[in-house]
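Module 6 notes. Inverse folding takes a fixed backbone as the condition and produces residue identities as the prediction. Think of it as a translation problem where the source language is geometry and the target language is the twenty amino acids. Below is one complete input and output pair. Work through it position by position during the lab.
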């Protein structure tokens, strides 16, 4: 598919979830390498600005403003202000397509579905099923005349060491634990799982845990920190509930990350930090990138896997309660040989 009309200014509407925004970085690299647009803008929530500054240096950032009443018109105004000749819409929402239509952007590129096809000037078919979001986003470069390579450029981020939280300074062998999930509680295992893992990782791999999450999660993280401190016999477990700059610096200071299938996993992957990632209600295929430093852990054989329900309807929530902490500890203990010897594409 070839582009229609010259594109001097290109805009990309970022997805809202942090992890999805990280997985859009390969697309941005392809567009920049292909020289699409003399000026390039990223539109997204203000909280995502650090991604543009560290992972997409050739792009200017245009914040969309707060969510709530009037957000479609605010989004349209932000896009119109860029003067974009073309916009690539990564969210699959009708609202993002409507905002692009209201903005009067000549070329509006996205995927069909959810009743938004009429608002697009160039479109790809709806997503057929579970597939890596890195590739699904990269495919949206094709209507702009960009060839999609078999091997995509990796998502890459840089952390600022000066942003490292004070509670982590002077320490080493940190194990970052990101237990939250904006998706919903169905992604989160019980506290006893995390307690058993930190106890084993501390004893077998000399890893010292800290908890990582967004500011809105600070109360929950503090509660879990108390549980983990008890499991470690009173050893302090720091809490880092912060914005992206501090979160990236904290991850960069870590030997590994233990996380649910959440945004922290994607940040760590883009920073080159090994991860042990817990899966259950979500399909691993959606986030299948950076596998060379990722261990995927889930309870196989359950009929309910990848249900994509935000709340589990099954009484004992088997995909999370039956996770075996010993398997996570074994993966983390493998780091004793050094990250450079991390086993590629390992399934524990």
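Target side of the pair, the amino acids:
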């Amino acid at each position: 598919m070839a582009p229609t009309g010259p594109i001097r200014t290109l805009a990309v509407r970022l997805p809202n979830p942090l992890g999805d925004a990280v997985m859009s970085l390969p697309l941005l690299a392809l567009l920049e390498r292909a020289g699409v647009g003399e000026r390039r803008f990223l539109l997204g929530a203000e909280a995502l600005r650090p991604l543009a500054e560290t992972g997409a240096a050739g792009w200017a950032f245009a914040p969309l403003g707060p969510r709530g009443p009037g957000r479609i018109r605010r989004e349209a105004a932000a896009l119109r202000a860029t003067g974009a000749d073309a916009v690539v819409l990564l969210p699959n929402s009708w609202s993002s397509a409507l905002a692009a239509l209201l903005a009067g952007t000549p070329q509006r590129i996205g995927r069909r579905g959810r009743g938004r096809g009429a608002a697009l000037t160039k479109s790809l078919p709806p997503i057929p099923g579970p597939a890596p979001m890195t590739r699904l986003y990269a495919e949206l470069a094709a209507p702009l005349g960009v060839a999609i390579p078999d091997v995509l450029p990796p998502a890459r981020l840089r952390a600022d060491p000066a942003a490292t939280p004070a509670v982590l300074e002077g320490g080493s062998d940190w194990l970052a634990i990101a237990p939250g999930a904006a998706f919903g509680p169905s992604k989160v295992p019980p506290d006893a799982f995390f307690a058993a893992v930190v106890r084993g990782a501390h004893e077998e791999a000399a890893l010292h845990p800290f908890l990582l999450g967004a500011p809105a999660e600070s109360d929950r993280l503090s509660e879990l920190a108390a549980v983990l401190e008890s499991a470690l016999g009173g050893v302090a477990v720091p809490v880092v509930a912060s914005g992206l700059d501090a979160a990236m610096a904290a991850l960069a200071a870590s030997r590994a990350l233990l996380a649910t299938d959440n945004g922290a996993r994607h940040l760590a992957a883009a920073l080159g930090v090994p991860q042990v990632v817990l899966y259950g209600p979500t399909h691993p295929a959606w986030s299948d990138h950076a596998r060379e430093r990722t261990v995927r852990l889930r309870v196989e054989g359950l009929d309910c896997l990848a249900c994509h329900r935000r709340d589990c309807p099954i009484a004992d929530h088997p995909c999370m309660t039956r996770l075996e902490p010993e398997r996570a500890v074994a993966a983390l203990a493998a780091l004793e040989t050094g990250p450079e010897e991390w086993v590629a594409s390992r399934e524990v």
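Reference fact for the lab report: The chain has two domains: 9-144, 168-341.
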